[in-house]
Design brief:
Elements lengths: L8 E6 L2 H11 L3 E8 L4 E7 L5 E6 L18 E5 L2 H10 L8 E2 L6 E6 L5 E6 L3
Parallel strand pairs: 1-4, 5-8
Antiparallel strand pairs: 2-3, 3-4, 6-7, 7-8
């Protein structure tokens, strides 16, 4: 299949919509494209723009069940963001109280990366581009 060109969006369901909205828009700096309350579902939907044109859709739902994410649970493993300066982004996160795992080196590409988590514990990765 040759029709796939890029990831359009990733959808995330938050346990605390306001907290996750602040995390993704203010701390990570993603631009808010659109926000809507869907009364029939008692749910908020927030579209956040990634610099490459992709989006993160952030949802709220009443009493969403928790999803196991570690260790190595079945399903989506993590969401990775490409960054130009890993050290600067890690320092920004840590300055705002976000714990990051130690920086590692990808054994196949030689690129540096580090993991952290969103407010619900969703594993997120920072993957450094070539300098």
């Amino acid at each position: 299949m040759n029709g796939l060109r890029a990831i359009h969006h990733v959808a995330i369901i938050a346990s605390d919509y306001a907290r996750s909205k602040r995390f993704y828009s203010e701390l990570l700096g993603l631009r808010i494209v659109h926000e809507a309350y869907r009364q029939a579902r008692d749910s908020w939907k927030l579209d956040l723009a990634l610099p490459d044109g992709g989006q993160i859709e952030l949802f709220s739902f009443p009493s969403p069940p928790p999803r196991p994410s570690r260790p190595e649970a079945q399903g989506l493993r993590h969401l990775a963001f490409r960054v130009d300066d890993l050290d600067a982004v890690v320092a920004h996160l840590q300055a705002h109280g976000v714990a990051t795992e130690p920086t590692r080196i990808d054994e196949y590409t030689g690129r540096r990366f580090a993991f952290f988590a969103d407010p619900d514990g969703l594993p997120l990765e920072l993957y450094e581009s070539a300098r």
